Amino acid sequence: MATQAAEKPTTWRTEPRAVDALDAALKANPQAMPVHPEKWDVSRSDIYVEDRWQPIFAEMRAAGDLHKIENSPYGPHWNVVSHKAIQHIEALPELYSSSWEYGGITILDRMDDAQLEELGRERFELPMFIAMDRPKHTGQRRTVAPKFTPSAMAGMDDEIRQRTGELLDSLPRGEVFDWVDKVSIELTTGMLAILFDFPWKDRRLLTFWSDWAGDTEIALVRELDDQRMDILREMAAYFQQLWIERANKEPGPDLISMMIHSPAMNQMDPQEFMGNLVLLIVGGNDTTRNTMSGIIHAFDKFPDQRKLFEEDPSLIPNAVQECIRYQTPLAHMRRTATEDSELFGQTVKAGEKLILWYLSANRDETVFENADKLDITRENARRHLAFGYGIHRCVGARLAEMQLRILLEEMHKRRMRVHVAGDVERVRANFVHGFRKLEVEITEF
Prior knowledge:
Elements: H1 18-28, H2 46-49, H3 54-63, E1 66-69, E2 77-80, H4 83-90, E3 96-97, H5 113-119, H6 136-144, H7 150-154, H8 157-170, E4 177-178, H9 179-196, H10 204-214, H11 222-247, H12 255-260, H13 270-301, H14 303-311, H15 316-327, E5 332-337, E6 341-343, E7 346-348, E8 353-357, H16 358-361, H17 397-413, E9 416-426, E10 435-444
Parallel strand pairs: 2-8
Antiparallel strand pairs: 1-2, 3-5, 4-10, 5-8, 6-7, 9-10
Helix pairs in contact: 8-9, 8-17, 9-13, 10-11, 10-13, 11-13, 13-14, 13-15, 13-17, 15-17
């Protein structure tokens, strides 16, 4: 990557959190968020923060595999809601593109030059390999993939287990605390810091950046979107220093060194570098973090399943898959049609965007019996689409599974039972599906 030395600010900001900034904007101006006039426009964030999205998707699935939304704040799009339709689309990456040049992987619209000029804004795009088509996608994915092979991760098992055990042993007993902050964020942020060989004292910056990068609702509030761009530029400046430091050293096993010494990635421009950082941070942080919280919430909601876990630890590997299915930490991905096509009885025109609602696919009644119930003995739990499908399936899926498995194993070893004992606050977002706060108390079984 062509770089220039970046001046590091005296202190790196870690406030305000993205969720707090959005809350403050909505409180100051309740009209800041646009209206959603169509009943099946599931891009609205209130249905996720209030956890009432399930019947809306069920109604759509009963009516068909995909449905056109004409009038949405994010522009017209197709809601793809069935398991088979999402698999079909993801299996045809040339016909249904992920490329940032068409708009990328989220529901956000790509503004044309005239719209940008009208708003007085410059184009700000973050190319990343998940938002690229072949062949460029292939080369960049191959650069980081060796970090997530079974042999590479075998060496991480002991370290993850030690860190997880030490953290669980440090948790307070007999008092209520926030599981999201003390466990989910700490474990996943620590894992990211290890993968990047990131300065340990600054590791919470990774959480801060992840939250600002992954919240699509912020883009609808002009001042917050401007703030996000500033924060992401600060992130890029920090990582640019790490890049410069490591470019002059022997190749190391961390992700930054792997990118530096890869012909597919070492000539990235600054925005592409920033985009791939966002991908790795959000992909490695928000997803595992929110499933770690989702497991606790689901076990509390379905105590019969918690009892099965406590009685039979051999169920843990399958419980991990079922909890990922049940939580689905990323609600959607987006594709754009590159040419006209017939899709499950509908005509999709070139240039139209299709929103693949993983949340809905993982509750598809034709695939998962009693899909709204957690069932850690579910025989086909692995058929979930939470990691995507096809060439863009999550490159870090095995690592996420390993972290979740070790967490459950170490909890079981300590006979730890976690009760929801206070506030449960969900994230106000249509992309990241997770928890902002989960107040719990620990007992033993």
